[in-house]
Amino acid sequence: MNSQKIYNKLYQQWTNEINNKEITSLTNESFKEYLKLYALDSASDGKLNNSDMQVIKESLIDSLIKNIKFLLDDLLKVRKRKIIDKSLNLLEIDRNKLLEHEQMFYDNLIASFKGFKNLESLTLSDIESSLKKKELTPVEKKVSEIPNILSQKDEMAVSPTKSASLIGIEYLNVRFMMDCPALVGIDLVNYGPFLKEDVCMVPFENAKILIEEKIAEKIMPK
Predict the structure, then answer these.
(1) What kind of fold does domain 3-113 have according to CATH?
(2) What pLDDT does 165 receive?
């Protein structure tokens, strides 16, 4: 495919993206074509030695390069806004429409927003009640000591501490099936980051999300 056809394809991709509420399909192969087009035009320095560039007049080279850069930059910005909006509202996106780095961006956002939504579900009175119970009841360990990450060499996962049950939060042992960034539990404790095969006891609500997203799996008692 020559430069003119690739440019037309890029322009059509950008037009579809800005005129469509939903994110459009963009393959890694097409995106690489667009990047090569920009690199080819940038390296030409106004010289039309390459036969593939003969269709473009020399006087339009500079404006063409600027147009290509604008289309690429704006295309990615529009797609980024759509991914953020979808993630914020916990809406699913067809992963086949996303570039590889967009898929990772979407996965991290969804995990973070779902955790925050669960945190929001705790009312202020619930938090205050939990804090009062924590202050009035003597416990052996602090809540901040609850997170315990075990390497894949450890055979048994940790069991809930007494303080965990005293504040009315259930915990579940899970094994991570992939690397996972740090997250905030509904108990307001920071967990992670995690590596694949790490084992950790996290609040049940957080564990439920991790399992649903196939980021972690429940450890069945032996």
Answers:
(1) Methane Monooxygenase Hydroxylase; Chain G, domain 1 (1.20.58)
(2) 47
